[in-house]
Amino acid sequence: MNSAPLSGLYAPSLSLLTDLYQLTMAYGYWQQGLQDREAVFHLYFRRAPFQGGYAVAAGLAHVADFLENLRFSDDDLTYLASLRSAKGAPLFPADFLAYLKTMEFRCDVDAMPEGTVAFANEPLLRVRGPLLQAQLIETALLTIINFQTLIATKAARIREAAGTDTVLEFGLRRAQGPDGGLSASRAAYLGGVDATSNVLAGQRFGIPVKGTHAHSWVMAFEDEETAFTAYAQAFPDDSVFLVDTYDTLEGVRHAIKVARTMRANGHELGGIRLDSGDLAYLSREARELLNEAGFPGVRIVASNDLEENLITSLKLQGAKIDTWGIGTQLVTAYNQPALGGVYKLAALRKPDDSGWDFTIKLSEQLAKTSTPGILQVRRYESEKGQPRADMLYNTAEPLPAQLTIVDPLDATRRRAVRPETAFRELLEPVFRQGQLVQPLPTLAESRTRAHREVLALDPSIRRFLNPHTYPVGLEETLHDYRTRLIREKRGVQGG
Ligand SMILES: Nc1ncnc2c1ncn2[C@@H]1O[C@H](COP(=O)(O)OP(=O)(O)OP(=O)(O)O)[C@@H](O)[C@H]1O
Ligand SMILES: O=P(O)(O)OC[C@H]1O[C@H](OP(=O)(O)OP(=O)(O)O)[C@H](O)[C@@H]1O
Ligand SMILES: O=C(O)c1cccnc1
Ligand SMILES: [Mg+2]
User: Fold this and answer.
1) What pLDDT is attached to residue 495?
2) Residue 213 CA: which ligand is closest?
3) Theoretical Cys-Cys bridge with 111: which of 117, 125, 350, 448, CB 3.0 to 4.6 Å?
4) Which residue's CA is the nearest one to ligand 1's atom 18?
5) Phi, psi of 326 (to 5 degrees)
6) CATH number of the domain at 7-152+338-373+426-469, out of 3.20.20.70, 3.40.50.740, 3.20.140.10, 2.60.120.620?
7) Mutation to probe ligand 1, out of 304, 310, 313, 314 (largest number of atoms < 8 A from CB)
């Protein structure tokens, strides 16, 4: 069993997609009789990626798929039974494994729909249910949501830079392995690219697939013109010629020559691709050559280690590029290869079932201290639908009539909410008692949402350099409660 088949990616038996400590804690909870104590966890990140001002939530569809299929197969249990303690005894006793065998997922999950714009410290997802189960799923939820949210956010930034130009994702060859590539293609599409070169992603997720040809195609023929002619023969209406194998502008001239023959035969060349050199200069020169030759409709595709800042710079330089092909920088999130999303316990049912104990994780840094409660995120919006401020509040406590939002890092910064301000509640029911409440949005719908939500943000929050911090605060009574809890846990008797 040294090479499990890759074809099983996202297939039913991913129940062991977890860190060992989730299972050892599960056994411990079970041994202590705590397995069914009701618990609430929140999944959130503490800082938006890429030093940006926002993130695009992604991955929920795969989380739902994982949770719907969460059950331990005989193979899973056989494997767990084979694990040994330091002294060689079984790590997990047979009666615990028997418990896992019959266990059925029955948590409630509320989450931001995919494509929702999210900010630091806001729960993207909330899990409520038996402690053992809610804990057990931590790692799978984080690995799915951290990566897809990261890549969807990168794609949204690239979309921002590219404006209405076409963006193609070319990353599979440089992705973090086959699953990295597959997840990245999905998240990149959700975040705003138009198509992918990844055919498996096209098949699995219905993403449009697109592409040109490689240098090796040109090198396989005696000269460039022959290579272009041959490609046009194979794809008379779908040809984009890569022109930089030998000399880029010579390549453009060869492309024009072949394009003339194509036109004489009733076909049009789709585009040319530039993959090296000064893309601003070469694209301008190529555009002029193509226009002069009567081919203003032939598109110019550019690729070569592109990302949002380069696209912005090339546009400022007057580059004449219609389509951006982006690989490595997008699918590996090159400049920030991980999102630090975390999953924290925020409430536990009292042992006598008389109410909740709200829990907090302290940190030296106030920014890393968690927020207790059963949280909801309320987004206040202007009449035009522009987000103004987000408020986290505890749904387990009554809300006061007059709402005030407090900045958790500086309690002197507060704003009163005018009662007539429109708002949306961002966490929506996804699972109840382990059952999917309703079908999730399609990938295309989530992509539309992402586009709409990012564009609704003020440009000061979207900009790449030193973006403005979007206001996210705690409802005042929650803030006061959290402050009290921090004092108590630190052993300080506060008023
Ligand atoms: N006008 C430009 N302004 C800023 N950066 C550019 C410009 N044109 C290209 N670049 C970027 O500069 C980097 C280096 O380009 P260059 O063509 O030298 O790279 P290369 O990968 O070595 O090319 P080759 O395939 O010929 O080896 C790439 O990331 C490319 O996208
Ligand atoms: O640069 P990326 O954003 O990752 O885009 C994908 C790259 O993959 C292809 O070639 P490859 O890099 O394999 O070879 P090349 O650089 O010699 O063209 C393509 O020509 C791009 O350069
Ligand atoms: O179709 C292309 O042009 C392509 C595909 C993958 C990587 N680079 C380019
Ligand atoms: Mg390259």
Assistant:
1) 44
2) 3
3) 125
4) 277
5) -125, 125
6) 3.20.140.10
7) 304
Fold designation for 159-332: TIM Barrel (3.20.20)
DSSP assignment of 312-365:
HHHHHTT---SEEEE-HHHHTTTTS-----EEEEEEEE-TTSSSEEE-----SS
pTM of the model: 0.97
For residue 279 the two structure tokens come to 């893309």
Instruction: Tell me the three state secondary structure of residue 473.
Output: strand
Q: Which two tokens stand for residue 101?
A: 């065998």
Answer whether 185 contacts ligand 3 (Cβ < 6 A): no
ipTM, interface predicted TM-score of the complex: 0.97
Quickly tell me which residue has 């226009």 as its tokens.
291
Q: Which of 198, 212, 300 to mutate to test the pocket of ligand 3 (most atoms within 8 A of CB)?
A: 212
Residue with tokens 């940006």: 52
Tell me which DSSP letter residue 125 carries: E
What are the boundaries of each domain within the chain? 7-152+338-373+426-469, 159-332
For a ligand 1 pocket test, name from 170, 274, 278, 281 the mutation site with the most ligand atoms within 8 angstroms of its C-beta: 278
Q: How far is the CA of 157 from the centre of ligand 3 (A)?
A: 21
Q: How many whole angstroms separate alpha carbon 15 and alpha carbon 80?
A: 12
